[in-house]
Amino acid sequence: MVMYTSMETIKNMNRRIIVVLCIISASVAVGGCSSFPFPWGSDIDKYDFTKTLRPGVASIEAAKPLEVIPLTYHHIIDELNRRSDEDLNAEMPPESEYTSYVVGPGDEVSITIWNNSELISGRTRGENVTQITVAADGSIYYPNIGLLSVADLNTQEIREELTKRLAVKFKDPQLDVAVTNYQSKKAFVVGEVNSPGPQLIAQNPPTLMDAISNAGGLTKEADLEHATLTRNNAVYSINLNNLFTDGLMSKNHQLLNKDVLKIPNIRVNGIFVLGEVTYPARLAMNGSMSLSAALKSAGKLIPLTRKVAQYFVIRRTQDIPKIFHLQSDALDASILADSFSLVAQDIVYVKTADNGDGPEIYEQVMNLLSEYGTASLDTTDTLTPSISQEKGANSVVWEK
Hints:
The protein is α+β, with helices and mostly antiparallel strands. The chain contains 9 helices and 21 strands.
């Protein structure tokens, strides 16, 4: 069974932990969780990291001072609120103005004549119904009228046009029009569904949930949080957890003609654990993942040492990247790491250090940030660890 966790659920779980953190924080200085002496002075000072950027990678974001944020309980709450606000305020597809189905090439329509002896004269029983396929140019041919353009007309509009033209030759024509085979309009569902492909749009357009159900449901590796909907060349981010976990039916948008709903693989938007760990890797994000869970997946620290481990989380945001820092020997480190939820494409960097190693660690964090922190990580990006001979056997360098 695949389980997904929504933003609201994560917030509720973490608020329970925050009660414990508040008690602990009463006996620990606010900055105590991040007391490692970095080169810029106090933990919350801002530092112009353009000094450590590799040549040619400076950007508008890089030109701004960057805040290194100590991982404390109030920063965890702030980050949860920021992410929740981003999710709620994300640009949504324009509301559908769909009222009724309009006919297009390939559709089949039936035209039924009622109680008119002139129109049905000479026809056998049942021949008062005519089945017509709409031509590629959007027209149909009907006896006594000839060619009639019906593209982008609904059945009521077609009936009115036919009635008007037949009334020129026949008295009070009575007829009905219906679409019997829908072929002209399609939406597409691709990615992590069991039966990806086009879906015909009939009288009532399918909703997001309808489309996923029609596609055979989700696979075990479906990433609901980072689905996208492409409409008229615009791409909208869709968090399907709003539907499947929170039940927000207002987010259950209708799919229109040529829409593309894409459900990515959980590995595409995974997180990276790098540095002095046994198994540096990209980890799949199936639901939520805490910092402690990511560290556990990466194995023990290497090399085995009594040095204090420094944990950094590099996070892309809509504004500038953020760096969160946690020191492993802090009194509340294990609780903080367990309550801090990672997000897609976070980079967790682990480094052991003595007090004098701050400048070197910071430079390595900045190198990671300049390489990956301001751009999207694609599945084509592969990270290969190698031991740097220049900086010593304990230095792990990651290259594309």
